[in-house]
Design a protein that fits this description.
Layout lengths: L8 H29 L10 H18 L4 H34 L8 H12 L11 H46 L5 H11 L4 H22 L15 H17 L9 H18 L14 H13 L8 H12 L2 H11 L12
């Protein structure tokens, strides 16, 4: 018989291991590049930053539910937003260190713990207790040290971007509360604008909301973790402002006797796009609400208050049906976002108690 030579198991194992470590390093670098250098909303099924978020946000919310004090629970939830960015950066660092430690497997003798130490020392440029000897060792050391310095630069430049986006979003909320009250309600926003009897006020308010909503859409799709940054105004989150905007725009579209308020359809479409796109960015499917946010008695009370403020209403049954239809196009999205982000949706009418 003729003997057929086969590759040794060790050679095949080393080849497979080399592919694994290369894939891990490239996968991590691609994720970091798309998140920082080229921010975009990619719906990749396996993404390290998404994995880091998924495995930490769920347990964090579970711990928050065990806190009885509402004030302490809010403070605890507020920590996660900034912390999530550090967690994501740490996941990238650890993945690269682990990938390069596998790279040292076929280059330097020793245990895996020793190779992991060498990889971490190179990545964080701590100085080597075991300097490289061969040309291949020197090349790997230079590559890993260079990536470590690059990630340090990323951290320095990345965090201010998040705080800039957060500050820009939050700066609008006090202005919005001036018109919508605190806590913000759609009924309060429409009633106050009606009472002032300034025809130019409502278009100005709607235009300011459009600019804010468009900015939130662009920034939060690129930097999704900013959505987890809690507002300093307690229950008044960016999602509260967005939902109140949608509610108020729906009222301005359906209730006025002489037709939709100028600017309200455009504001409604922009705000609805924000809710739909951000729900998709977090891979959330719209869900039906367990209870009606605006039952018929509350709708009638809302109409009475707006009529008393001087608004000429088209309060027919057809108007109520049209309002219900508009609500059905956005409420499932804001509801699933509220559940995911652990915030409460705003009421429709002001509490006068």
């Amino acid at each position: 018989m003729i003997a057929v030579s086969r590759p040794s198991d060790g050679s095949s194992h080393e080849h497979t291991q080399g592919i694994d470590r290369l894939v891990l390093i490239l996968w991590t670098l691609l994720d970091a590049f798309e998140q920082v250098i080229l921010p975009r909303n990619e719906a990749r099924p396996f993404r390290l930053s998404h994995l880091a978020f998924r495995v930490t946000w769920g347990p964090w919310k579970a711990l928050a539910r065990r806190i009885r004090s509402e004030e302490r629970r809010k403070r605890f939830l507020a920590y996660y937003g900034p912390l999530s960015v550090l967690i994501m950066l740490s996941f990238w660092d650890l993945a690269l260190i682990f990938g390069f430690s596998l790279g040292w497997w076929g280059i330097r003798e020793g245990t895996f713990a020793h190779r992991l130490y060498v990889s971490g020392s190179n990545f964080f440029t701590l100085g080597l207790s075991n300097p490289p000897v061969t040309d291949l060792e020197r090349l790997v050391t230079l590559i890993e040290a260079g990536l470590g310095l690059a990630f340090l630069a990323v951290i320095i430049g990345y965090l201010p971007v998040y705080y800039g986006v957060y500050s820009s979003r939050e700066a609008f909320i006090p202005r919005f509360q001036w018109a919508a009250g605190y806590p913000s309600t759609a009924g309060g926003l429409v009633r106050r604008c009606t009472q002032l009897r300034d025809k130019s006020l409502v278009p100005e308010v709607l235009m300011a909301i459009q600019v804010w909503a468009a900015d939130v859409l662009q920034s939060h799709r690129a930097y999704k973790l900013v959505a987890l940054y809690r507002s300093q105004k307690g229950n008044e989150s960016w999602l509260t402002v967005l939902t109140t905007t949608l509610d108020a725009a729906a009222l301005w579209i359906t209730l006025p006797r002489d037709g939709p308020q100028f600017g309200s359809p455009a504001t409604f479409e922009i705000a609805r796009r924000v809710a739909q796109d951000l729900a998709g960015a977090f891979r959330l499917r719209p869900e039906s609400l367990p209870a009606d946010r605006l039952p018929r008695p509350d709708f009638q009370k809302l109409c009475q208050r707006l009529a008393a403020a001087g608004m000429e209403l088209n309060d027919s049954e057809e108007t109520e049906q049209k309002l219900a239809h508009l609500r059905g196009t956005y409420e499932p999205y804001v509801y699933v976002l509220a559940r995911f982000l652990f915030v409460e949706l705003p009421a429709w009418i002001e509490d006068t108690a």
